[in-house]
Q: What sequence folds into this?
């Protein structure tokens, strides 16, 4: 393939290359603020615009051969596409300021999409041909109810996803799903049996279900709130990570038989945690004992005052002899 590499050339304006026949055009690390696509050769298959000063990307001329477009590390807020890009299968626009995904309908054959480090809160209108999807660190709060049927890898790290905002259907071809560092409180449901790797670390999950997707090989649940581990499961995992949870079981004697390798460091089953638990129980008992002692002291004092009144009937109407404790009996 014929290639033109113009990176590190301090370009501020696009050169007119329309009469050329390059197939790979690299314009990385310049000072370009606008790309007039009429200056791009129609023969280009791979176009790279990384690390420029682009604020808007407009494709308004046919690019029938364009297969790969990369424009990461810019300041793009709007991506306007008024023509179809029938050959485009890979789009990388990570680390920009994109909020809307209206442009996706112009890419009927898109397979690989990277939208991480943008400002996307709602993920919808995904192409049905999509195979890999990365929307990490976007403050994502809602995903369309059904993902494309052919999607194989989904990465959604560092968002604000809760149980009600994740899809009901993850497709039938999913192999790898990464939902680390979100706000999930339960193990995701309706996962396809095709999934092999599942990453759920740094969430708020409290329980591991006894039944998980049958082909699962890797499961990462580190940094959650899990208290116990099921004694059996319907799968045989290769790697199970349970570090930094709240597990009090002694996993050295009660081994997890349904995982070949189980990593469970820094849980509540270590000697230092057992010592802390004993100290807390002891303090709690002392606290309860003090409460009971206060009640007994109050009851004894009231009894003494009543006896004083009984022994001195002439004081019965002189309520000033009662201590304030008598009037705080019900407080």
A:
């Amino acid at each position: 393939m014929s290639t033109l590499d113009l990176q590190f050339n301090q370009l501020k304006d696009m050169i007119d290359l329309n009469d050329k026949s390059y197939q790979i055009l690299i314009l990385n690390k310049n000072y370009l603020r606008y790309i007039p696509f009429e200056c791009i050769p129609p023969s280009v298959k791979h176009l790279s615009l990384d690390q420029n000063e682009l604020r808007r990307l407009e494709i308004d001329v046919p690019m029938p051969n364009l297969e790969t477009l990369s424009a990461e590390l810019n300041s793009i807020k709007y991506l306007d596409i008024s023509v179809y890009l029938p050959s485009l299968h890979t789009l990388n626009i990570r680390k920009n300021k994109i909020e809307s995904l209206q442009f996706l309908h112009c890419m009927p054959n898109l397979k690989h999409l990277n939208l991480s480090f943008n400002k996307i809160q709602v993920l919808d209108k995904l192409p049905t041909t999509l195979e890999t999807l990365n929307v990490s660190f976007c403050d994502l709060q809602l995903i369309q109810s059904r993902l494309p049927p052919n999607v194989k890898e989904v990465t959604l790290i560092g968002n604000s996803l809760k149980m009600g905002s994740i899809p009901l259907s993850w497709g039938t071809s999913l192999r790898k799903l990464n939902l680390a560092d979100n706000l999930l409180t339960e193990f995701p449901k309706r996962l396809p049996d095709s999934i092999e790797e599942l990453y759920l670390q740094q969430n708020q999950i409290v329980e591991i279900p006894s039944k998980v997707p049958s082909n699962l090989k890797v499961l990462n649940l580190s940094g959650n709130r899990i208290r116990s581990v099921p004694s059996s499961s319907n799968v045989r995992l290769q790697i199970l990570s349970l570090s930094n949870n709240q597990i009090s079981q002694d996993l050295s004697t009660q081994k997890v038989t349904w995982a070949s390798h189980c990593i469970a460091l820094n849980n509540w089953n270590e000697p230092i945690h057992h010592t802390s638990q004993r100290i807390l129980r002891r303090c709690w008992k002392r606290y309860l004992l003090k409460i009971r002692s206060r009640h007994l002291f109050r009851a004894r004092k009231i009894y003494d005052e009543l006896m004083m009144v009984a022994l001195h009937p002439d004081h019965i109407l002189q309520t000033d002899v009662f201590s304030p404790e008598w009037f705080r009996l019900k407080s």
About this structure: The radius of gyration is 33 Å. The CA atoms of residues 170 and 191 lie 6 Å apart. Helices lie at 271-311, 324-327. The mean pLDDT is 88.
